[in-house]
């Protein structure tokens, strides 16, 4: 069996092995649940243990918890050496701890005495002697001191330690209402104590709130009973007293690291992980794991496989959530990395990153999510840009020094390598921390581009100088992906360079495919590869390559679903599955395969709702659910199910308004709210409420114009304004307000033309341009200006025709070409009815072709294909009836 499975089996074995036979069945049912194979494996181990009992022989020493007389102590009020026992104060895995007082003529002092009252074999005695030696080496103000030690009359060792009468650290924080910064200050003192132990070659291995008491504001670290001496003999599983009911490796399950669960090598990184869990709980009051049950094997699986959610997403207090979002999210998640090599290199580095966060300095940690929030850049906008430029200058100098030093003598090589690593670390911090921290800030797109471009240059040069390094290659791929997102990621703030974005995404994909091939089965690499499939598909679709996009979408779906099968409750896998379904749904919609698109959209909603249920306070997950609801509503509209669509729009509106109100500076939430108004308007007008539709569109226009003014270089903001002008025009056209409709179409065209000229590979600009022109043509004809209408329609035909020929799988351009032919036919009815007949026939042929292929683009506010077919057929019939024979 694999290491994870073996860890679970061992854990359950230790839970039940000391139970009487009558109680074992119930315990096995509770711990193994429905996993029959797991039960068989545990039972097999129990049977093997029973068969080995005779060989092992009886325990050398068996002591009941209250049998102090056998240890040379006459009663609970008796003496151990010069100390008089007052009362029992705690039970540990190997011993009982008593409060005692010095009771001789020397001096009076309260102490804590630990006696191995639960020993069942000589190995337990070794544990206590081991702890005594560990504590003897440690003298630190935040570590409980060893005062004395000895053995009872029966040869059982005992420890005399400083008596600490305080509150558990988590209880202390709660009862004293400490704010986030005060908790961080307290935690840094704990880190200082742990770092001191590490510098003295001691790994604690059981860091948890009950082992950290606070007295007069000062934390005291207790219980080094299962500590490991680094480089010395490991008192690990081999020496473990059998009576201890803990996970293999002797630790508290909730604070255990993945390597402890698997029984792997213990290092200082183990304590870093436990401190990460402790900090998570101190900041959120919650565990980093989301469990469906309390079964131990569920916890063990979560520790090994489940990626913790961001701390900021599990707190309900808005002020605390703001304080945690960004830097603290990044710090905690780095400490909780499954791979020990990806955590902080030391507890000191962990604590120093907290100091950096408090002092608003760049972090060592690489961000997995927003690393710095808007406050860090809004605080000093111009100064931030200047500081970034200075940092980049330092990087240039640093990189030059690294390359120069590499050519020097061997005595300088190690220093050059260290400098190389520092440059790499700084470049990573800029691209992953600073960039992510300003991603949702208004006006940040140019700064983001500069950050990414320069950092990418450093990564490229580092990659040339370094022999193959998988971690460096992964960072290089991530840098290319970040650059692609800034250049042209659809539906987010970008610079509108679609082909450059696609090229950058494809470079990231190439690197990730190569790295993944060299390390098959690596979960993290698979997720990174999934991200590349998803992003490349997005840009292929938006650059008019629908068929290729579909194939890449399916690769992303396949990769995400593979992760979901193995980890159905993993938040990262759920989000990947949801985003993959969204991408596939969008591409299927473009291809006119509306039934399949609706199925994919429902799958996305199902997964995003599951993700939100796991973490109800996660704003990003709530935003995704809101967008999914709108996507399903639009799909239903395109299929003509107008009344069924409105409830989805209502639910989306309620969620989007809550999110925007909670974070009014968040660009993503504002954009979601504006899109909600647009979709709701489309639903209302198709249900006959044009007045309600106009009100919704006015709100959308107001929001989008505001975003565009705040983000003058944000291409997506301009696209959003362009789109709403066309939508407003459609409502006005439907209500026969032709002059007002024409003005909105003109505005849409005025925005679409420069966008299409600057980014000629973007299909959406062409789509909006063609559709606005053909509708503008319709308004001209309605106002009896056939000549102007004909010119506008002809332009629409040229644009839609070229786009359709370049990407025949995109049904939207076929539909727009048909509508443009219809508009030109309308303009020709009076001056040239023969041409009008030909144009109507071409329009009908295109729409019938879509229908026969089972593809529907869904039409527009002017009508879906079935209604449009009937309308054009009626126009053609009337025209033919009046044409001369």
Summarize the structure.
It is built from 34 helices and eleven strands. It is mostly helical. Among the domains are: 3-56; 76-163, Phosphorylase Kinase, domain 1, CATH 3.30.200; 167-371, Orthogonal Bundle (Transferase(Phosphotransferase), domain 1), CATH 1.10.510; 725-885, Serine Threonine Protein Phosphatase 5, Tetratricopeptide repeat.
CATH architecture of one domain: Orthogonal Bundle
Helix-strand makeup class: mainly alpha
Helix content class: 55-70%
Strand ordering within the main sheet: 1-2-3-4-6-5
Terminal Cα separation, in Å?
86 Å
Note the overall shape. Answer: elongated
Poorly predicted ranges (pLDDT <50, ≥5 residues)? 52-67, 230-250, 367-382, 409-420, 433-443
What is the makeup of the main sheet?
6 strands, antiparallel
Radius of gyration: 34 Å
The CATH superfamily name of one domain is Transferase(Phosphotransferase) domain 1
């Amino acid at each position: 069996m694999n290491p994870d499975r073996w860890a679970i089996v061992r854990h359950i074995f230790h839970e039940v092995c000391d139970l009487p036979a009558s109680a074992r069945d119930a315990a096995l049912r509770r711990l193994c649940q429905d996993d029959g194979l797991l039960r068989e494996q545990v039972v097999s181990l129990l049977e093997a243990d029973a068969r080995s009992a005779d060989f092992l022989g009886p325990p050398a020493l068996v002591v009941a918890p209250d049998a102090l007389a056998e240890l040379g102590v006459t009663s609970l009020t008796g003496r151990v050496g010069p100390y008089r026992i007052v009362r029992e104060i705690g039970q540990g895995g190997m011993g009982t701890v008593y409060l005692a007082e010095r009771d001789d003529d020397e001096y009076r002092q309260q102490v804590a005495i630990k006696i191995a009252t639960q020993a069942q074999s000589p190995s337990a005695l070794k544990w206590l002697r081991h702890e005594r030696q560990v504590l003897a080496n440690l003298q630190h103000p935040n570590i409980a001191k060893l005062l004395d030690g000895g053995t009872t009359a029966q040869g059982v060792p005992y420890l005399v330690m400083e008596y600490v009468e305080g509150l558990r650290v988590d209880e202390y924080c709660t009862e004293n209402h400490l704010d986030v910064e005060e908790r961080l200050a307290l935690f840094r003192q704990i880190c200082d104590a742990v770092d001191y132990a590490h510098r003295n070659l001691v790994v604690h291995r059981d860091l948890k709130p009950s082992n950290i008491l606070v007295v007069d504001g000062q934390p005291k670290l207790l219980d080094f009973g299962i500590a490991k001496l680094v480089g010395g003999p490991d008192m690990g599983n081999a020496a473990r007293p059998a009576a201890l009911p803990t996970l293999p490796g002797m630790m508290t399950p909730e604070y255990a690291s993945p390597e402890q669960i698997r029984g792997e090598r213990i290092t200082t990184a183990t304590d870093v992980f436990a401190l990460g869990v402790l900090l998570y709980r101190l900041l959120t009051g919650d565990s980093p794991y989301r469990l469906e049950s309390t079964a131990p094997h569920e916890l063990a699986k979560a520790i090994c496989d489940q990626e913790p959610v961001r701390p900021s997403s599990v707190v309900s207090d808005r002020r605390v959530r703001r304080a945690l979002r960004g830097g603290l999210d990044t710090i905690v998640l780095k400490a909780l990395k499954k791979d020990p090599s990806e955590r902080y290199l030391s507890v000191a580095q962990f604590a120093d990153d907290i100091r950096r966060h408090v002092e608003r300095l760049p972090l060592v940690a690489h961000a997995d999510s927003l690393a710095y929030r808007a406050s860090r850049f809004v605080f000093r906008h111009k100064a931030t840009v200047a500081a970034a430029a200075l940092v980049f200058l330092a990087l240039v100098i640093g990189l030059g020094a690294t390359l120069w030093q590499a050519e020097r003598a061997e005595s300088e090589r190690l220093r050059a390598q260290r400098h190389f690593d520092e440059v790499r670390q700084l470049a990573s911090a800029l691209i992953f921390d600073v960039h992510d921290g300003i991603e949702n800030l208004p006006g940040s797109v140019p700064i983001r581009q500069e950050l990414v471009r320069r950092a990418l240059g450093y990564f490229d040069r580092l990659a040339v100088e370094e022999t193959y390094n998988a971690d460096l290659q992964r960072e290089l791929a991530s840098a290319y992906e970040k650059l692609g997102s800034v250049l042209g990621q659809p539906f987010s703030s970008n610079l509108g360079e679609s082909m450059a974005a696609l090229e950058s995404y494809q470079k990231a994909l190439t690197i990730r495919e190569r790295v993944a091939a060299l390390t098959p089965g690596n979960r993290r690499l698979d997720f990174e590869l999934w991200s590349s499939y998803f992003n490349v598909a997005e840009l292929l679709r938006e650059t008019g390559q629908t068929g290729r996009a579909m194939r890449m979408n399916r690769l992303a779906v396949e990769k995400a679903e593979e992760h979901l099968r193995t980890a159905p409750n993993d938040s990262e896998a759920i989000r990947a599955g949801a985003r993959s379904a969204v991408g596939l749904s969008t591409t299927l919609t473009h291809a006119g395969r509306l039934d399949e698109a609706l199925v994919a959209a429902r799958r996305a909603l199902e997964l995003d709702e599951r993700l939100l249920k796991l973490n109800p306070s996660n704003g990003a997950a709530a935003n995704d659910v809101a967008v999914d609801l709108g996507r399903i509503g639009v799909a239903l509209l395109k299929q003509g199910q107008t009344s069924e669509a409105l409830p989805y729009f209502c639910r989306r509106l309620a969620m989007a308004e809550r999110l925007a109100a909670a974070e009014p500076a968040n660009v993503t939430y504002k954009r979601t709210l504006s899109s909600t108004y647009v979709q709701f308007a489309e639903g209302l007008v198709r249900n006959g409420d044009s007045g309600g539709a106009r009100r919704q569109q006015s709100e959308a226009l107001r929001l989008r114009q505001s975003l565009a003014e705040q983000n003058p270089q944000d291409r997506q903001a301009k696209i959003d304004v362009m789109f709403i002008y066309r939508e407003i025009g459609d409502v006005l056209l439907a209500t026969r307000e032709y002059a007002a409709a024409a003005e909105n179409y003109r505005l849409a065209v005025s925005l679409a033309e420069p966008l299409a000229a600057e980014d000629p590979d973007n299909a959406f600009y062409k789509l909006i341009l063609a559709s606005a022109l053909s509708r503008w043509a319709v308004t001209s004809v309605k106002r009896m200006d056939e000549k102007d209408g004909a010119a506008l329609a002809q332009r629409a035909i040229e644009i839609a025709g070229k786009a359709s020929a370049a990407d025949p799988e995109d049904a939207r351009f076929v539909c727009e070409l048909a509508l443009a032919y219809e508009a030109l036919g309308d303009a020709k009815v009076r001056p040239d009815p023969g041409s009008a007949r030909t144009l109507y026939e071409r329009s009908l042929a295109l729409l019938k072709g879509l229908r026969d292929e089972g593809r529907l683009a869904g039409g527009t506010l002017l009508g879906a294909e079935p209604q449009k077919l009937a309308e054009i057929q009626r126009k053609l019939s009337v025209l033919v009836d009046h044409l001369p024979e």
